[in-house]
Structures are given as C-alpha cells and as structure tokens.
Amino acid sequence: MIRVIVPCYNSDLTIEKCIASIFTSKGIDFEVYVIDDGNNNRLEELKNEYPIKVMRTSGVEGAGKARNLGTQGFSGQVVVFIDSDVQIYEATIASLVKPIKEKLADATVGSYSKQRSLNFYDDYKSFYLANKYNTEGRYLRNTFWSAICSIDFKTYTIINGFKDCYSGAGPEDIDTGVELSLQGARILSVPQAMGKHLSSFNFSKLLKNDLRKGSEDIYIHLTRKVSITCNRHVSKADIIAVFLAWGLPLFFPLHRYIGFSPLLICFILYIIARMKFIKSAFGGEDLFFIFRSCLLSYFLDLIRGIAVIKGASLFMIESLTSGKYRPFTKLPEINTLGR
Hints:
Layout: E1 2-8, H1 15-22, E2 30-36, H2 43-47, E3 52-56, H3 63-70, E4 78-82, E5 86-88, H4 92-101, E6 107-112, H5 120-133, E7 139-140, E8 148-152, H6 153-158, H7 171-182, E9 187-197, H8 203-224, H9 236-251, H10 255-258, H11 261-282, H12 287-320
C-alpha cells in the first residue's frame, strides 16, 4: 500500500486542485491523508467529494510535524508527500514510487514542470527548480525536496521522519536530505514526476524566499558538519557567480581610481559563469523572457551572498551561546518521531 500525505496550511485556494490531481493518478493504488495544520476551511467539504482522510495537528505545528502525523498507523512500503499548492500529473506518483519498489532508490524527488503561466516569477521559479532536479537518473546528496517526493517507509523510520522542531516549511527539507545522506540512503531525482506550482510569486516574495531558504541551507549544513557543495543548489558555478555578482557593486565605487576595466571583466566573467545555467534552464524561450531571467538571476545571486553571511552568522551565534539560541526552530531541542 502507498500512502499519499498532503500537509495543509492556509490552503483554501489550492487544495482542491491538488487533491483532484492526485486522484487522476494512474498505474498505482494508494490512500490519501490530508493533514490540517491550520487555517483550512474546505477540508470537510472536500471529504464529501473525494475519498480522503483528514487528520489535524494541534494548530500551526509546521510542515515537518504535519507530515509525520500523516504517517501514523501506516505499515506499507512507501510514503508519498505532495504539497498542498502543487498540482501533479497522472504519472507523477507511479514515477516517484517505481525506483523505490525496484530497489534503485530509498527516496525520490520530482520537479516542477516547465509549463509557462501568465506570471513571469512563477515561471522562473518552476524553470529554476526543474533545472536543478530534472536530471535523469541523478542521485542527490545532502539535499531533498518534499513538495513532490516519496520515501521508503523503512528508511523513513530509520531517520525518525522529518524533524518537527522547525517552524513553517523549508528547513525540514534540508535537514532530511542531510540525514538521508548520512544514513547512506540513495536519493534519486525523477524528472518524470512533475507537478505545477499553484501559489504565486512576485519579485519581493521570490527574493525573501531565496534569502530564507539560502540562510537555512548554510546554517543546517554548518550545524550538521557536511559539505554544502554536494547540494544541487550550490554548484561550483553557483559559488563563482555569487562572488562575481557582488564584485560589480563592490568595484563600482572604486571606478574613479581603478577604471572600468575590473567592472567589465567582472561582468563578462559573471555572464560566462551563468551561461550554462541560463541556457539549460531557459533555453528555447523568447529573448525577452531570457533577458528578464538573466536580470533576476543576478539579483538572486546578490541575495544568496547575503544568505551565506546570514546563515554563517546564525551558526556562530548559536555556537557562542552554547546552543541556547536556535534559529528557525519553535522548540529548544530537536524532537524525533517518537515511534
């Protein structure tokens, strides 16, 4: 038996499309558990339309806690997790589960589709994630993405599920990827397991999202003492691009003394560092879309530089306070699943 778990917080605008898409799935039998983590008013109505089971946290406990609650009483082989703002395709669940059933992986992650919408920022985010995870047969280390994913249930119990100490959603993904890798689990990228992101981004929201996720990434990797260079979001080209992106504003005030040559060289090197990413992520799109994507990538690289400083600073503060200060958490100590 496969159990599909959908954690929900403030999901009235997207939850019906999410659930409806799950029940279009073909080639596999499953049950669906929807976990109410607060501010959801349509679940009782949807229970009458779809064969779902609804469980409730004690109120805004966070995505990790909600996912763990959804596994209670499960004794099957694989658990699948789909975010409530994701609309999956009919082959997504079967594609996620197949490598685990065939013993090729212990956990799998899908990706957003490259289906254009009317919102440029939504498209950029979907294309970016598709580029990072949409790699056929690629095993990942120290990274995980729970918006569209599945985990062998034995492996899930070995790692004690998602850490439920984190507030909101995001850090538990990173921590789970690190824990899976430390336990020797194989995390496989499955590009056929696609979904459409239903929540909308704008410029400000995208910058804030990358700052939060980036600082969480740095902090957790430093805390767990694992290399961040294995992370799909932190390739050598990404690191070089962030340094070069910051070179432009740092060199500009000095142009009266050193001329514009260092600025020009820095700009050219930045374009070269980002060329492969831009081509693979946005190649084939119209020139205006590619131009806007290049500009947005530059601003996001600046934000990622700030995220590195923020994440490292939070780690240093925690170290100096002997763990009394714990960023991103709602509890003083990390809890496990407690099975």
